[in-house]
# Entry
Amino acid sequence: QVQLVESGGGLVQAGGSLRLSCAASGSIFSTMGWHRQAPGKPRMLVASITSGGSSYYADSVKGRFTISRDNAENTVYLQMNSLKPEDTAVYYCMVVSGRNYWGQGTQVTVSS
# Structure
């Protein structure tokens, strides 16, 4: 049974930093990543990383966010720097093992 435990969200001022963590268990995961959903907007992929270390970033976060993973611990991280109010959203961890599995979401709020 796949389980995901997210942590690290919160309230931060614009220009600040947060680090999200997602610990996964119950399988071996090929791709791990983070999506976000702002109020009234569709969920979008923010960043993802394969087991081999290849990463993808949405244009809106390139140069500010860094995704990493610890394969031994089945944990994926999202380091978010230079945060902007438009980064405010619920952030969801997503992992792939034959199908997509989603975390419960963690709120990130960036005040101006």
